[in-house]
Amino acid sequence: xxxxxxxxxxxxxxxxxxxxxxxxxxxxxxxxxxxxxxxxxxxxxxxxxxxxxxxxxxxxxxxxxxxxxxxxxxxxxxxxxxxxxxxxxxxxxxxxxxxxxxxxxxxxxxxxxxxxxxxxxxxxxxxxxxxxxxxxxxxxxxxxxxxxxxxxxxxxxxxxxxxxxxxxxxxxxxxxxxxxxxxxxxxxxxxxxxxxxxxxxxxxxxxxxxxxxxxxxxxxxxxxxxxxxxxxxxxxxxxxxxxxxxxxxxxxxxxxxxxxxxxxxxxxxxxxxxxxxxxxxxxxxxxxxxxxxxxxxxxxxxxxxxxxxxxxxxxxxxxxxxxxxxxxxxxxxxxxxxxxxxxxxxxxxxxxxxxxxxxxxxxxxxxxxxx
Length: 371
Fold this sequence. Notes:
Layout lengths: L1 H20 L8 E18 L4 E7 L5 E10 L4 E11 L3 E2 L9 E13 L2 E8 L34 E4 L14 E2 L10 E7 L6 E10 L2 E15 L2 E11 L7 E12 L4 E12 L8 E14 L2 E13 L7 E13 L4 E13 L4 E2 L2 E11 L1
Antiparallel strand pairs: 1-2, 1-3, 1-21, 2-5, 3-4, 4-6, 6-7, 7-10, 8-9, 8-20, 10-11, 11-12, 12-13, 13-14, 14-15, 15-16, 16-17, 17-18, 18-19, 19-21
């Protein structure tokens, strides 16, 4: 670990030493500041087989956000300060007691220094291992609305209810035990020191540390590729995160994704995630996700996008359990208004030997307004 820390800091220091030694004159530096964000609200109906609820909430896939950015740029150096706050309005539900309070929470708070040798990032943001891993290679314009590949439904009802049958064959509604098998295959944002390479003919990479101080250090790295071949876009990425120092269960997380979009707007993506257990023979949760979509221009207001996703997770809670998820998203951009309208449906099925679980079915409509 010590050698890794020294290598990371040395690489960053060497990359920026030349730029900092010969700063630009004040008159050659271009400064700018910006403010923006969006409000993203939806209405959904979620049926977990035991109850049906009507929810109104900030969309789980992107929520509502407020962004502040300032930068200074010259020929030799670019500095940037960035803050992004997640804004969650008062969520409501027809099921008494499941509503949520209004909250503000920090998504990003970091600064960066960039030159021809790459970018050094310091602060609270995404670690290196998440930059080119699961979910990052995707061209569909419909995937980041009410439901995405990392959440079962917009209302957050990812609990599966245990079901049973009486002697007469009727469903026993008294069995209220639930399980939450869905895993997250990304490390998540935190305090990081990260180095991002410049673009090398479509290839890029990142390496960094997350945590430190009272928290165990979490090294991670990723590599990505993107290109446009006469209108055909391709992208691929792989991310690795070591969890050995701060996870009692898993030693590392790995993820990868590949995507393509034709000039016609037809697109497809494949994603993979895996958590490797420290104990030999214990469960190693894995996730496969497949998506197809079509981005088209059928109205003057803006692009219309369709996205269909199938996802399968194995060994989430016990050996040989199985979680399947199907989702369809539709979105319409209203470019002149800075507005997107979307909707969709999803179904999630969880199975485990010896126990029956209800399926979860959801439908939603929503609007995102940017400012």
